[in-house]
Amino acid sequence: MKRNAGGERRLGDVIADVLRREIVWGEWPSGHVFSENALARRFGTSRSPVREALRQLAHEGLISLGRNGARVVGLDLGDALELYDVRSLIEQFTASRVCERPRAERESLAHTLSTLVLGMEEAASRGDWQSFSDLDLAYHDAIVRAANHRRVLRMWDEMRSLVQLTLALVMRKRMQRGDADMRGALAQHRSLAEAILAGDAAWVRRVMQSHVEETRRLLEGGLRGHPAGDER
User: Fold this and answer.
1) Residue ranges of the chain whose pLDDT lies below 50
2) Which one, of 124, 88, 128, 101, lies nearest residue 199 by Cα?
């Protein structure tokens, strides 16, 4: 996340976050053209941070920039599943790599993961899928960062915002499916923390592969378009 010298998020990042969520969640259909002037009015800003936000989204492949403006490409099911292919590769690699770290480091990570799972349990009890998905991202983020692999981390950071949005879609789908599905998700997270603590790379890979494949299947059912509204 980009911040200025005072630690505040740049306005362009804030705008990008809002538009990213709306595009991924189907609020703007493929082919819709954003007007910089309309977006500037909506967010109460100049066109400069709007352009910055649109460049970010173009880099992520969600829009295309051309002479006719910023056209929505969107994240279709094929794109989302490719994202999960890459996610699976990154997370299985980093989780296995974490198993090679000294036990003290694994204990610290396992404690962090277990604390996050407790937060997930509380969010699930409230039916708060948004908080659950935020904690879920923090859980997986902690594993990737603990692997201490700069190039993989760079790849992860580039796709992190899209992973966050797809996790939210999946968590909403899970909660709609009922308590049993949420208990299964929590059990997977607890099992992964135990496998990391044990330093058992084979166990880690099995749990991670099963977890990501399940969320991938849920994403197929959860990624649905929503009627687009007027540009606001």
Assistant:
1) 1, 3, 5-8, 225-232
2) 101
Contact 90, 81 (CB under 8 A): no
Instruction: For residues 114 and 117, give the distance between their C-alpha atoms in angstroms, rounded to a whole number.
Output: 5
SS3 of residue 9 by DSSP: strand
The CA distance from 9 to 1, in Å, is: 8
Q: Kindly report the CA angle at 220 between 216 and 224, in degrees rounded to 5? A: 135
For residue 222, the model assigns a pLDDT of 61
**Residue corresponding to tokens 């977006």:** 39
**Three-state SS annotation for 51-112:** HHHHHHHHHCCCEEEECCEEEECCCCHHHHHHHHHHHHHHHHHHHHHHCCCCHHHHHHHHHH
Please give the single-letter amino acid code of residue 49: P
Residue 65 β-bridge partners: 70
- Cα angle: 39, vertex 44, 50; to 5 degrees: 40
pTM of the model: 0.78
* Alpha carbons 53 and 180: distance in angstroms, whole number: 40
Beta bridge partners of 64: 71
Beta-bridge partner residues of 72 = 63
Return d(Cα 207, Cα 113) in angstroms, integer: 15
